[in-house]
Design goal:
This protein has 2 domains: 7-180, Rossmann fold (3-Layer(aba) Sandwich); 189-283 and 295-398, CoaB-like (Rossmann fold). The chain contains 14 helices and 22 strands. The protein has helices spanning 20-30, 49-56, 67-72, 75-80, 92-100, 106-113, 126-130, 132-143, 169-180, 214-225, 253-263, 306-311, 331-342, 382-399; strands at residues 7-12, 34-39, 60-61, 84-90, 118-122, 147-148, 152-155, 161-165, 189-194, 199-200, 206-207, 229-234, 245-249, 268-271, 278-280, 300-302, 320-327, 346-351, 363-364, 366-369, 374-376, 380-381. Bound molecules: ligand PMT.
Length: 401
Amino acid sequence: MALRGKRVLLIITGGIAAYKSLDLIRRLREKGAAVRCVLTPSAAEFVTPLSVSALSEDRVYQDIFSLTDEAEMGHIQLSRDADLLLVAPATADILARMAAGIANDLATTALLATDKPVMVAPAMNVWMWEHDATKANCALLAARGVGFIGPVQGDMACGEYGFGRMIDVPDIVDAVVRHFSGGALAGRRILVTSGPTHEAIDPVRYIANRSSGKQGHAVAAALAGLGAETILISGPTALPDPTGVTIIRVESARDMLAACEKALPADAAICVAAVADWRIKTAATQKLKKNGGGPPVLEFAENPDILKTLSKPGNKRPRLVIGFAAETENVVENAVVKRKTKKCDWLLANDVSPATGTFGGDANTIHLITADRDEAWPTMTKQQVAERLAGQIVDFFGTDA
Ligand code: PMT
């Protein structure tokens, strides 16, 4: 009864996946939660108030203008009485209205008025999920601390295939249980590096790479969501700061190493940043000029390897050091060698060839390489990669002496 005494306000919005919310109510209640439901008008086209009421053993809230609702339980109280607001399925429409702060029905009014955590399980057509508008709305909501559960890749009711399918009901229940567990990583201090580094050529030019920081920031957000004290050391990115992390902004590889060393000791370090291997040996102090003598000759120097440095045996070595490997060929073979050379515990290899869209994109396909495992993960969103990695970190510390 992992959810005994917890009150969940389940907001069911109108998508074909709404029928799964009936099973969700049953399973949340099996874990001990009290489930109170808000049904939007379009959700009521997919599931009946009667079945929702029967399964939740409570009345169903549908209409902000219903005098009875307001007399017995105002919308503010409805949102405050819960310990968690869970929107499942969450359509593109409700995510857009949540992002915009619109309160034009009972569901959105409760979501805007609440002072409690909010989790959403998106469900929509793949093109709607991949639309820039939805991506921007989700990024904004995630940055405000809304927890995302899924979606996953799969066949859709509309006959198409891709991301957008609501994650399975048991996975939603697991995420809710994890949310209430007080954080499976509470008490752990974890460093995460993210984004590119910028290596100065002169005061106005630099060498960089295509990392957006999406994967590293998602890892930091997932760890913070599980209660870890998360220090995110980030190169320059255009992303909002994830909720609940301490962010340290740096420019170059050397700055990033210094910030990592200063942030030690830590229980784990996860190097997701795309760190420049080389810098210009001596950056010009003034802007380089075209002086008719031909292009400048730039002499390179090797940057320190942060992952290798953090992996060195010693009393400050985090117990778990994890790297990512960006490869364009022989992904697994190269990553196996890289893990041994850098002496980290785990390495998550990903193909960053331009055709994969890994750099800057929202999806990633990972091979997790450890001393005794090579796990091929299916293509997932970067957020799902982060959650799966965070789950394995929980398991590691759960069994770590
Ligand atoms: O930021 P996104 O757009 O979301 O893209 C995500 C990503 C592709 C950047 C990410 O998933 C990824 O692969 N990160 C590792 C990038 C990288 O630098 O890979 P590498 O194979 O060159 O380095 C291996 C490991 O050594 C990495 O953990 C890296 O952080 C680390 N390293 C590398 C060089 C260096 N001087 N110091 C390091 O610590």
